[in-house]
Write a structure and sequence with these properties.
Distance between the termini: 27 Å
Number of helices: 8
Order of helices and strands: EEHEHHEEEHEHEEEEEHHEH
Shape: flat
Strand content: 15-25%
Length: 302
């Protein structure tokens, strides 16, 4: 529920109503009570997002902001809020949007669950000990926003409740190199599958066709040629391996391998921990698996 902002700050033309201003403190009070009762030890968290339909038809969409200004009802609150924020240099969709809804332009076009739909994500951070929700963040529907929301919630939980988890569990949508590196820097153990794009080969040989030689730190192609390590980015732990252009000039598999003058592989490499998981981490992993299994059963029953 939003009410008109009477101030001169046009970057945020609408502000939360009195009910929603009190809701955060009510929510935090409940979380604090759960902590006092021992229900939120704060050792391990799980994060996920649920898709929420926007007030928009999937077959009624436009491709530009100009179409929103010309065709949409600009007196409708969702449209006017969107345009005011846009004109104030505060766009809802960072980097633009593929499609926009004339009735709910802040809703994002999402294809995560099959056919494209307009909507939002409600993102939840959950303490896995007793499945207590400790924070919530709403975002537009693009998958990248889930990671943004996860960071926002972790920051907020740390500042509000002084809790920094040892473990974070999530699905592979969160398993990007930058986010895994971000967690590692904060000494958070990630129980997250790595988002592996090696099979997205665009008709060429996938990365699975290359063999990694850890002794020499090179990849070996099906023709026995090596791709040497060239660069690495510490922030994302992305390592780049490239073949010698001379090898590719006469390679019989060149057309199946690359459209460039040589093959390049970008690989995310995480160091293995030097010690075994402690009893706590083993116990926490069991809790995470139990929680995820229970969540799957609940969702399938809906």
């Amino acid at each position: 529920m939003l009410v008109k902002n009477s101030s001169n700050d046009n970057s945020q033309p609408f502000q939360p109503s009195s009910f929603h201003r009190s809701a955060p403190s009510m929510f935090e009070d409940v979380v604090n009570q759960c902590r006092k009762a021992g229900l939120v030890p704060g050792e391990g968290f799980a994060v996920d997002g649920s898709f929420v339909h926007g007030d928009a038809r999937r077959d009624l969409r436009v491709e530009s902001v100009d179409a929103i200004r010309e065709e949409a009802d600009t007196t409708a609150r969702p449209v006017s809020e969107y345009l005011v924020a846009l004109d104030a240099g505060n766009p809802v969709h960072e980097g633009g949007a593929k499609y926009l809804s004339p009735t709910d332009p802040a809703a994002a076009w999402n294809t995560k669950e099959g056919r494209g739909r307009f909507g939002y994500f409600t993102n939840y951070m959950i303490d896995t000990a007793h499945a207590v929700i400790v924070d919530v963040e709403a975002t537009p529907a693009p998958m990248a926003q889930e990671i943004v929301a996860a960071k926002t919630m972790l920051y907020r939980i740390a500042s509000t409740h002084d809790i920094e988890p040892d473990v974070l569990a999530a699905d592979k949508g969160y398993g990007t190199g930058p986010f895994l590196a971000w967690l590692k820097e904060r000494e958070v153990t990630a129980h997250i599958p790595v988002l592996d794009r090696q099979r997205q080969s665009d008709g060429l040989m996938s990365r699975e066709a290359f063999t990694f030689d850890p002794e020499r730190n090179v990849f070996i192609c099906p023709q026995g040629k090596t791709l040497k390590h060239r660069t690495s980015v510490d922030a994302t732990r992305i390592h780049t391996y490239r073949a010698n252009p001379t090898d590719y000039r006469t390679c019989p598999m060149r057309q199946q391998c690359t459209r460039s003058d040589r093959r390049t592989l970008s690989v995310h490499l995480m160091k293995r921990p030097g010690r075994k998981l402690s009893r706590f981490r083993t116990r926490q992993r069991s809790r995470v698996h139990a929680f995820c299994a229970a969540r799957s059963k609940c969702c399938s029953a809906i």
